[in-house]
């Protein structure tokens, strides 16, 4: 059968020998009491494909009062953009879920300059049915204003509750605990922690630091406070406009390895800092993991581009993006009521940077420590 232009529902119904109501039930998912046999359903679907029938989107939107479009908003700030690995990992999950549920996506700030008010405007204009927030600040006033317009808002990777905001969250405490447990099972107890050294409101980073300190207080790891490299020890601290992950990793490793008793393993609060540690270790002639085990939290594409491959606690960002999108669509279609919260657990991705520690009393280990300290005294702080 040859495809023709402007094929209507009436055309399909007449060709199939059924009523328009029956054809609409099959092709448009119309709700009602119309019953359709399996044979007729197959016939209608086959004929619609042969004729080239497509549902009228404008007509469907008037009936459902939905645009079938979701907005995506990334709060404009330094190092926040859909071009970054973190946001793109979430976006991949968002895109897949939207496609599976027959929704389109509208990126509201691809230039990273649009104000958050654009989200409310697009909802008010019925251009979008809801908004996915990626990397929004905790308790931001503009989110409260947006929630006054609609509760069809989902924030992905947002650890802090906010009014009727639906959220997909990551269990940061479990991530640090899994990192500690992984190193402990490899025989490490003197473990260093590299914290976020940028002065900003980053709740997940703070939770990770607090959890490690709780592990120290509980005696799960060596309680020596010198094993924590944080903003107070990072002098001068980097600014958010700089490559702060790289700077933090470099300074942290030099500091930790210069301690009278260096750690046998370190946990980096994110994987980019972990990658920076690996690069600095190479410059310091440290062999990873023979001389030092390194474990990062979060997963990014960069870990596969370094040698050895970094062992990480995965943030499962694509899965969180997919879950957040499904959550938003359920809110739009009134299959759920705000606020909805879903938490994701961490996942260990074994690389090549964790191994049992060398015996501290061995002659080789003592010679190694003396060599490291000598190299540090020659290189200085490297700034």
UniProtKB/TrEMBL annotation:
The keyword Signal does not apply. It comes from the Bacteria. GO terms for molecular function: DNA-binding transcription factor activity; transcription cis-regulatory region binding. This is LacI family transcriptional regulator. InterPro entries: HTH_LacI, LacI/GalR-like_sensor, Lambda_DNA-bd_dom_sf, Peripla_BP_I. Residues 351-383 are annotated as: Disordered. Keywords: DNA-binding, Repressor, Transcription, Transcription regulation. It comes from Victivallis lenta. Residues 7-64 form the HTH lacI-type domain.
């Amino acid at each position: 059968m040859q495809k023709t232009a402007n094929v209507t529902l009436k055309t399909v119904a007449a060709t199939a020998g059924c009523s328009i109501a029956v054809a609409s039930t099959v092709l448009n998912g119309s709700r009602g009491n119309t019953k359709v046999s399996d044979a007729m359903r197959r016939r209608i679907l086959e004929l619609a494909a042969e004729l080239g029938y497509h549902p009228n989107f404008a007509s469907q939107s008037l009936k459902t009062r939905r645009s079938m479009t979701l907005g995506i908003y990334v709060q404009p700030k330094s190092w926040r953009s859909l071009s970054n690995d973190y946001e793109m990992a979430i976006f991949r999950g968002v895109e897949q879920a939207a496609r599976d549920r027959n929704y389109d996506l509208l990126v509201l700030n691809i230039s990273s300059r649009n104000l958050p008010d654009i989200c409310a405007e697009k909802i008010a204009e019925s251009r979008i049915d809801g908004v996915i927030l990626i990397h929004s600040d905790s308790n931001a006033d503009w989110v409260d204003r947006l929630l006054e317009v609609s509760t069809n808002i989902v924030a992905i990777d947002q650890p802090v509750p906010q009014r009727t905001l639906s959220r997909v969250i990551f269990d940061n405490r479990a991530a640090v605990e899994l990192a500690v447990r992984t190193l402990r099972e490899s025989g490490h107890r003197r473990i260093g922690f590299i914290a976020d050294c940028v002065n900003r409101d980053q709740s997940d980073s703070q939770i990770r630091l607090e959890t490690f300190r709780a592990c120290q207080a509980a005696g799960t790891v060596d309680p020596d406070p010198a094993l924590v490299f944080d903003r107070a020890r990072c002098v001068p601290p980097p600014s958010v406009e700089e490559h702060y992950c790289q700077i933090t990793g470099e300074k942290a490793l030099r500091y930790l390895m210069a301690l009278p008793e260096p750690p046998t393993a370190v946990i980096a609060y994110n994987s980019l800092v972990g990658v920076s540690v690996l690069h600095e270790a190479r410059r310091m002639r440290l062999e990873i993991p023979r001389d030092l085990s390194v474990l990062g939290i979060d997963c990014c594409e960069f870990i596969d581009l370094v040698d050895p491959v970094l062992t990480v606690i995965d943030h499962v960002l694509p899965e969180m993006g997919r879950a957040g999108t499904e959550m938003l669509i359920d809110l739009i279609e009134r299959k759920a009521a705000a606020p909805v919260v879903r938490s994701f657990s961490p996942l260990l991705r074994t690389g090549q940077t964790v191994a049992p520690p060398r015996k501290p009393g061995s002659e080789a280990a003592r010679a190694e420590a003396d060599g490291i300290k000598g190299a540090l005294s020659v290189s200085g702080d490297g700034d």
